[in-house]
Amino acid sequence: MAETEIRDMFVIRLRNAYAMENQALGMMRPQLSRLEHYPEVAAKLERHIGETEDQVKRLERILEDMDENYLNLKDTILSFAGPTTVMSHASVDDKVLKDALTDFAFENYEIAAYKSLMTIADAGNFGDAKDALQETLAKEQSMAKWLDDNLPAVTRKFLLMWEGDAPAARPGDPRSAHDGDHA
Ligand SMILES: [Fe+2]
After folding, report:
1. Residues with pLDDT less than 50, the chain
2. Which residues are near ligand 1, the ion (C-beta closer than 5 Å)?
3. Per CATH, the architecture of 3-157 is what?
């Protein structure tokens, strides 16, 4: 592959990553309001929102260094189609669990995206960009590991809260009177 082709591919993938991270922010920020009973998850999520904002800035810096006009990136944001598009969030009460699964999938998607970007950076000899991408990858891996480690605890907490509810107040429960609108 010619050097300019690798460069073009790198920029395209960087723009996709930029769209992905903005999608992640749009996904994570509303989740915070649903986590009042899950303070550890809320704290971790809040931290990762901050990390993600840094990652967006890191991508902007890399694109600036590549002489790319990242102000045009709004177009790419609209065109991003990540794993969340195939996951519908129909019912409200188990949203915390669905958020946990979506975040788990999304962080692993991000890991794949950054690993792939680093390989392209290698191929194009974009050493500085690769270092910045490595920094982001480490954060994504740490977040994915945390979600992995904590999914059982979050699920158990959800079950406890769910059991604490009156059966009639459980959408999705076959014994519930509110049948019909669960996922
Ligand atoms: Fe992330």
Report:
1. 78, 84-92, 166, 168-169, 174-183
2. 110, 140
3. Up-down Bundle (1.20)
